[in-house]
UniProtKB/TrEMBL annotation:
Gene Ontology biological-process entries: L-methionine salvage from methylthioadenosine
Keyword ATP-binding annotated: no
Family per similarity comment: Belongs to the EIF-2B alpha/beta/delta subunits family. MtnA subfamily.
Record protein name field: Methylthioribose-1-phosphate isomerase
Residues annotated for substrate binding in this entry: 53-55, 90, 203, 253-254
Organism for this UniProt entry: Notoacmeibacter marinus
Lineage top rank: taxon: Bacteria
Keyword line: Amino-acid biosynthesis, Isomerase, Methionine biosynthesis
Function: Catalyzes the interconversion of methylthioribose-1-phosphate (MTR-1-P) into methylthioribulose-1-phosphate (MTRu-1-P).
UniProt gene name: mtnA
High-level lineage: Bacteria, Pseudomonadati, Pseudomonadota, Alphaproteobacteria, Hyphomicrobiales
Pathway entry: Amino-acid biosynthesis; L-methionine biosynthesis via salvage pathway; L-methionine from S-methyl-5-thio-alpha-D-ribose 1-phosphate: step 1/6
Length: 367
């Protein structure tokens, strides 16, 4: 996607520097900073501190981390150490483990002398695959938006509510939940996107920054406004992303997603989840019982970062002194509340049968 007219991906390999370049998302939307990641420790820090964030992007980043490990030391011991070190960075998004598992399984079958080049090639492949997956999700989600647009009066926008940031900066490019929006806008379908602020890190501001850069009409709203808008007929559909989805279609996403799904269900609003296949955890069925929920630093809830009137970026405390905070980063939406899953292979029901129908080889491999 473009920033001030220049195309960027969320990460890219700089051949001249021999290192990975990332957009440091801690400073967005107020400051656009690019960072070079050159050590395994820096890779782990980038993931933990959410310099890179979003399940697909974390997976791609980890693949490049494995490539760096193989460049430094291509032994099995080095590979296993890097796997464990990077896997421990964040517990909920399954793409991290998916990418690490894929790298280790592939590289184990390759001679140590060839692992450096093979690992970097594999990281490039994983990144390109993510771009292709997100592009296809955009095409399949576009069909749903077209259906709604066809039923509306001429010129009236399709009103979409989204939660958190499942945009191009949460992936290598295009995004998941935003990909259908970009495709619809580019096709000339009028849109208006309700963007949840998504406390505590206000990742809705990232979505607003993206949509504004692409020229898509949107409004930034408080997290608790979505139900009200649905009650008053102001939302035609909800599209969110996901960090891990079970084989039966339970969806784990940014905290607050469950409440949006409940409000959508109560008001008859279609609730869709944009789902890249690497985000499916075929080993898990009951998301509420089985998916580990990351608990982050409580300071993220007691403090908030923003831009001051003088243009500087600062963190300010919003709670009384001594107040304890709790920071559960994700929640699980049961499959019964999900209208459909938008994948790279099509749209399916959020059921075991629906997912297995689109991805039979993956379902069978997990049995």
């Amino acid at each position: 996607m473009k920033v001030d007219g220049t195309h960027y991906r969320s990460l890219w390999w700089d051949e001249s520097k021999g290192s990975l370049q990332i957009i440091d998302q801690r400073w967005l939307p107020h400051d656009f900073r690019i960072e070079s990641v050159e050590t395994i420790e820096a890779f782990a820090t980038a993931i933990v501190e959410m310099r890179v964030r979003g399940a697909p992007l974390i997976g791609a980043t980890a693949a490049y981390g494995m490539a760096l490990a193989m460049a430094n030391d291509p032994s099995d011991e080095s590979m296993d150490k890097a796997w464990s070190y990077l896997n421990a960075t964040r517990p909920t998004a399954i793409n991290l483990r998916w990418a690490l598992d894929r790298c280790r399984a592939t590289l184990r079958a390759i001679a140590e002398a060839d692992r450096k080049d093979a690992a970097l090639k594999l990281a490039h492949e994983i990144s390109e695959e993510d771009v292709g997956i997100c592009r296809a999700i955009g095409e399949n989600g576009l069909a749903l938006i077209r259906q709604i647009a066809a039923k509306k009066p001429a010129g009236e926008p399709v009103r979409i509510l989204t939660h958190c940031n499942a945009g191009w900066i949460a992936t290598v490019d295009w995004g998941t939940a935003t990909a259908p929006m970009y495709r619809a806008h580019d096709e000339g379908i009028p849109l208006h996107v309700w963007v949840d602020e998504t406390r505590p890190r206000c990742q809705g501001a990232l979505t607003s920054w993206e949509l504004g850069s692409h020229g898509i009409a949107h409004t930034y709203i408080t997290d608790n406004a979505g139900g009200h808008l649905m009650q008053h007929g102001q939302v035609d559909m909800v599209i969110t992303g996901t960090d891990r989805t079970t084989r039966r279609g339970d969806v784990c996403n940014k905290i607050g997603t469950y409440l949006k799904a409940l409000a959508a269900h109560d008001n008859g609003v279609p609730f869709y989840v944009a789902l890249p296949s690497p985000t499916i955890d075929w080993t898990v069925e009951d998301g509420v019982a089985e998916i580990p929920i990351e608990e982050r630093d409580p300071r993220e809830t007691t403090h908030i970062q923003g831009k001051l009137d003088n243009g500087s970026i600062a963190s300010v405390q919003v709670t009384p002194d001594g107040t304890e905070g709790a920071n559960h980063a994700f929640d699980v939406t049961p499959n019964r509340l999900v209208t459909g899953l938008i994948t790279e292979r099509g749209v399916c029901a959020a059921t075991t049968e629906g997912l297995a129908g689109l991805f039979p080889e993956m379902a069978q491999a997990a049995e």
